[in-house]
Design goal:
Blueprint lengths: L9 E7 L6 H14 L3 E6 L13 H12 L5 E3 L12 H11 L4 E7 H5 L15 E6 L9 H10 L15 E5 L7 H9 L10 H10 L5
Parallel strand pairs: 1-2, 1-4, 2-3, 4-5, 5-6
C-alpha cells in the first residue's frame, strides 16, 4: 500500500507485554512493515495489560530486552507512553495519544488473530477505527469471523492490501497473511524455568540478558 501526499507518515503500532520479546513478535512486525509499506513501527510495551495476566519481568527489564532485540533495526521506536501512564494500558487511550501527536499520519494498529478475536472485549473498541487503521496478522489458513460484531466490522471496513491502494489516516481494516510462527511467551517462560535454552526463539542478545538476570528461572 502507498502513502498519499495528504498524509505525513504511515506508522505501525505494535503493543504487547513483550514478556519476553521473541522472534514471533519481530518477524510479524518485519513482514507487516515490508508488505504493507509501513514506514516506522512503534513497539509499545504495556504497563498494566487489562486482558491478560500481569507481566512476570519488571518494566525495566522488558524495556531492556526490547532495546537489545531492536538495537540493529532502523525505522523502529520503543514507545514508552503506556509505561508512563497510570492505570490499565487501554489501547483506546494509546490511540488517542498517538493521534494527538501525529494528526496527519496513517496510524496502523497491528494485531495478531487472537487479539483481533478478543477485540469486542476491549474498552471503547468500536471507537478505535475513528483513530487508527487495524491490521490483522493472519496465519495461513486461519478463519476470519463471518458473523457477530467482528463479522460486520469486516464486511464494512475491510480493504484488500493492494500495491496501488492508498492508506487512510484511520478507518481501514486490513488482513495480511504472515509466516506461521507459533511461539508463546508463556511457553517460553515455562521452558526457561525448566532449564531449556530458547535458542532461535529469541535473539541471542535477549537470551543473554534473560540468563544473566534470572528473571524467568524461579
Amino acid at each position: 500500500m502507498r502513502r498519499p501526499e495528504s498524509l505525513t507518515a504511515v506508522l505501525g503500532l505494535f503493543g504487547g507485554t513483550f514478556d519476553p520479546v521473541h522472534i514471533g513478535h519481530l518477524r510479524t512486525a518485519f513482514e507487516l512493515k515490508v508488505r504493507l509499506g509501513i514506514e516506522r513501527i512503534h513497539f509499545i510495551p504495556a504497563a498494566v495489560p487489562p486482558h491478560r495476566p500481569q507481566p512476570v519481568a519488571s518494566i525495566e527489564l522488558r524495556v531492556q530486552l526490547l532495546k537489545a532485540a531492536l538495537a540493529s533495526e532502523s525505522d523502529v521506536v520503543i514507545d514508552l507512553r503506556e509505561l508512563e501512564r497510570e492505570g490499565p494500558s487501554y489501547s483506546i487511550d494509546t490511540a488517542e495519544s498517538l493521534r494527538a501527536e501525529y494528526p496527519d499520519a496513517a496510524l496502523c494498529l497491528l494485531l495478531g488473530m487472537d487479539a483481533f478475536l478478543g477485540l469486542p472485549e476491549w474498552r471503547d473498541w468500536e471507537r478505535l477505527l475513528c483513530l487508527v487503521n487495524i491490521v490483522v496478522a493472519r496465519r495461513p489458513g486461519a478463519n476470519l469471523p463471518r458473523t457477530g460484531s467482528l463479522g460486520r466490522l469486516l464486511d464494512e471496513r475491510r480493504v484488500e492490501p493492494e500495491p496501488d491502494r492508498d492508506w487512510a489516516a484511520a478507518g481501514q481494516l486490513i488482513v495480511q497473511d504472515v509466516t506461521q510462527l507459533e511461539i508463546s511467551a508463556t511457553d517460553l517462560r515455562a521452558s526457561i524455568r525448566a532449564g531449556v535454552e530458547p535458542r532461535y526463539l529469541v535473539p541471542a542478545e535477549v537470551w543473554e540478558i534473560i540468563e544473566r538476570s534470572g528473571c524467568y528461572a524461579g
